[in-house]
Amino acid sequence: MLVKELFAKPIDRPINGVIKADQADSASVWQELDEYVVTRELDVHFRRFFGAFLEAIDRTGDPSLVGLIGVWISGFFGSGKSHFLKILSYLLENREITWNGRTKRAIEFFDGKIQDAMLAADIKRAVGTEIDVILFNIDSKADSGSGRDAILRVFLKVFNEKLGYSGDHPHIADLERRLAAQDQLDSFKAAFHALAHVEWEQERDAYSFYADELVQALAETLGKSAEGARSWLDKAEEDFRSRLNVENFARWVKDYLDSRSPQHRLLFLVDEIGGFIGDDTHLMLNLQTITENLGTICGGRAWVVVTSQEDIDAVIGEVRASKANDFSKIQGRFKTRLSLSSANVDEVIRKRLLNKDESVQAALTQVYEDQADILRHQLSFTNVGMTFKPYADARDFVSVYPFAPYQFQLMQKVFEAIRRHGVTGLHLARGERSMLDAFQSAAIQVADEAVGVLIPLYRFYPSIESFLEGVVKSTIDHAADNDRLEPIDVQVLKTLFLIRYVDEIRGHLDNLVTLFIDCIDADRLVLRQRIEGSLQRLEKETLVGRNGEDFFFLTNEERDISREIKDIDLSAAEETKFLGELIFEEVYKGLRKHRFPDNNKDFGLTRLCDLHPHGSRTEGDLIVSVITPLADDYGLYSDGKCTLDSAADGGQLLIRLDDDKTLSRELRTWLQTDKYVVRKHDGTASTTTLRILRERQEENRERRQRLIHQLEERCKEAHYYAVGQHIQPKGGSAASVLTEALNYLIRNSFNKLGYLARLSANPQAEIKAVLNATDVDELGFSLEAGQGNQQALAEVQSTVGLMASANRPVILEDLVENRFGRRPYGWPEWEVVLLVARLVRRGDFNLVSDGAVLPIDRVYDAVITPSKWKRLLIIQRQTVDQGRLQSARQLAREVFGQLPPDGEEALDGFLREHFGGWRTDLTQYQPLTASGDYPGSQEIAESLGVIAKLLAESESFGLISRFLERRDDLLDLSESVHELRHFYQTQRSAWDRLRQAHSRFQLNRDWLEQDAGAKPALQRMQEILAAPAPYGMIKEVEGLIERVEQVNAALVEQHRTAVLPAIDAQIDKIQVELDEAKAGADVRNRCLYPLQQLKSQVESQASLAHIDQAARRAVELADSAFSRIESLTPPAPTLVNDKGGPSPKPVVVKSKPRRILRAAELAPKTYLETQDDIDAYLNKLRQVLESAIANHERVEIR
């Protein structure tokens, strides 16, 4: 039985697989209605559409109907949405079709197609309404360059055409509309015909050629002048353009509906509105406004039904993303949304195209039952992004044979992907190919073959071939003419083209075999071999590309770029470097150091790939050498050579990867592609080239991941050799296998690793504890102590000793990293430092920094910072013998008054502590002696010098030796220090009292020295203060001070007793004068206050000279007061007589001026020796006195 004999209808009958809105011939319409399949999905859509339509009819005039007049029909490319729209137009118009002598109305074709009687009744009721349907493809109706109102212009055009008006010239259609409204249109047409001798409808689009006839016919019809008619014609187009808007258009539609019955409806059925709008914000707003105004102005009687490959939310989403406008209204205008899915297409193809004749169904069922297992195996896929359905059961097999179920899913993806990536011409992009057409084309190709044949994917290629862009089609055509290729190569190329842009399936060899299955019992192994050979030929011709195990079709641009990539030159070093990067950085996770678990030491790695170093470090503790199939002498690396090489340099790890032919190809492709992409990103590449470069970058990213995965497996399964042995480390990953191998290498090449019998849990903390310990015995430093790593301690001590005897400096960093960190030890850094700290603390070693031995209390700070290790020198220590040690202890007891502890370290600490204490005290006393007020300056300076020299000895050996050498000096020093300490800590207060008393007594020294008891006491005080070592004299101080103090106090009291009465006498005299002068308070204060102050000073003054001076000062102050009083003139009082008038002015008596007479000054000579001398003196005295009296003066004789 042949395939073509299986179908209920001829498989090669003419089927209009692509429905066009403007294709309305009777034969096409009849076939469309007759063969239309109402699927389960379409049944639901019919219900929703007619439900909304009848609701609007039943609620005519309801304002809420505005949101019901928009219907949005969406579906993927070729899903049948245009067909559904056209069937709706036939049903709504209930069009009558005549074909082959038969006549039927559209509704009659649905008898039997609609199983639900209620739905059938709703459809009949709807089509019974007066309905005008305007069906059109908006893209074909649109004028180029229509601008923002393109959709409005198209709606107006088809509306005008529907009414019989001009479609191309809206202003002419507007003239026709106005004439029709006045019942003058027929008259105008007749007048025009009479003048132009042509029918108006035939020539109206060329009206400018008949301008005179048009003007005259218009003037005759409307009774206007020719000039007026011509003026209208000249301005008509511009005038109409100014009036053209959505609102006026909606009113024109309303005017038309109002001219018909109230139940009349008008539907605009618009195909492919989504593609026309694209992401144009203005067009979307234009559609929104049209739908809204038609709804509001026409009251639900005008409908808009559109189709789009995207649902309304997706279209609005694209527009929003570009302009961010609010399109919430349009979503409200298209509340009825119908979406056609792939299931609908599948069902249509099965029922319309593949429906089997009842006579063959049993035979096909038997074929499936016999071959079901084979079919499941034949139609299996590898690494796909979705589940491609196999035959579900015999019924499924019968309904889709000779196709496979997955082809319905895959071809939908193919059509969408090809259209999306723009490799087809405009026809396919506009939907002029359908799934139905593609399946029919493929089925016809095998129509004459026997049952058992299956349709491979390349059979679908002819259905789109004529619509492909030339560059794509020419690639496949040239392949067919290529003598180096075979026929199957072209089929493979077609297959790879069809799936080129389908993300859900890759061009893996196993998938290509499945896509090539052309009969149920095809031999997959043979087919695989043929396809594999074909891919090699196509790849050699650069017709296909390869990304790992996936192959893909190359366009012309991709082919050129692929050739250029292949021509990129690479050096062996580049390949090795990149391979080393993948192995060590990706597979082995960037491992640069390996932490050995037995002691937590980090071992540095020297990493080699094909003997080329990877990374900057080439002196690591461990050598890891990876030999790959890319090595020039890879074939020489037998087990024997690998074993031998792994024993070199004290032992290393050698890893040999198994041979892999794909590794080199993938590696070279990655490097060539990477270099090419970097080179091409120079700003000059075209948009297409940039797209291809991005794709190559993505392929390279995947290729890199494949290489990593491939090398991960190769490294896990590699051959490992270490220390002359072929080993088999285990692990779940390549990194864990490497870890085990490195552990083996360390354990078998570091033979003194075991000397560290015990590892510290926290070496840094233990170092601190060791160096701060006070009891050496507690630490277990003895080499015999089991807990002290005795072998390791002995090894460190021996190594330092040998290096010292060879006059080689022992640097801590070198000891830690280069000596004990490497073979044969491999000890952790901090464990080595801990061993050194133990030996330093025990006294075997000293650490020297900047030429000075570090004291034990500074060792921890030095060793805890690794950066300081390079500056720390390790030296062996000298020790003091027991005899000298005991002598030093006895001397220390004599010097310091107490016996120090036993042991060199303890004695060293004791001496440093006590000398340090002396130095601290003496340093505090020294600034006091510098002033000259305190004794001991020379003793302190000499003592500090001795102490400084002793403490300058950094080692205990030097300090103790110097201590014994200066025995006598130290005994004298001890005595001086004790005297100084006693003075400054105990006697200093008495000394300060002595200094203060002596200073105070100096004020009255002249009077005190006249006293027999005070004079010797003052002299003794001066002797004590001047003594260089007055320490034994301090006991006399209190008695001396008391003796002088008594005399001094008596003298002060005596002088005060003589002076104070004299001051009081002056005060009394001034007060008398003030009273007589009736002086005010201010004057009294100024005259008396200075004398009162002077009296207070005398009462507290301790200086005898100052007390005596106060008597003379009192007289001077009194004279000043008298002068102030004499200068005053008391004011004259105003008196009132008995009669109330002023009394006569009283006489003011002014006080007499005062003359001070110093009698001694009148004596003619120093001494009066005779009577004449007396007479002369008295006469002169008389004359002066009489003169004063004559001058009304008062005389005070002094």
Automatic annotation (TrEMBL):
Domain (Probable ATP-binding protein BrxC 4th six-stranded beta-sheet) ranges: 569-745
Probable ATP-binding protein BrxC winged helix-turn-helix domain: residues covered: 753-877
Domain Probable ATP-binding protein BrxC alpha-helical, chain residue ranges per copy: 885-1004
Entries under NCBIfam families matching the protein: BREX_BrxC
Protein name: BREX system P-loop protein BrxC
Species assigned in the record: Allochromatium humboldtianum
